Amino acid sequence: MLSAAPDLNTVMIARAGIGLGMGGFLPAVTTYLSEMVPAKLRVSYMSALIGCTAGGYMLA
Length: 60
Description:
It is a single chain. The protein has 60 residues and is an all-alpha fold. The chain has a domain of 32 residues. It is built from 2 helices and no strands. This is Major facilitator superfamily (MFS) profile domain-containing protein. It is a multi-pass membrane protein.
């Protein structure tokens, strides 16, 4: 989507917004998972979350 931006300023503003959104996403979801998932499964869920988030960053 950023390739359709009309100029560099638009790209920089969009990237800053994406960075802020993703920066707020990870701590919120990590906290939610650590509270809701049973202790026995917590390590597996947290590892999957971190791994999938990193994979998503690379694909984006």
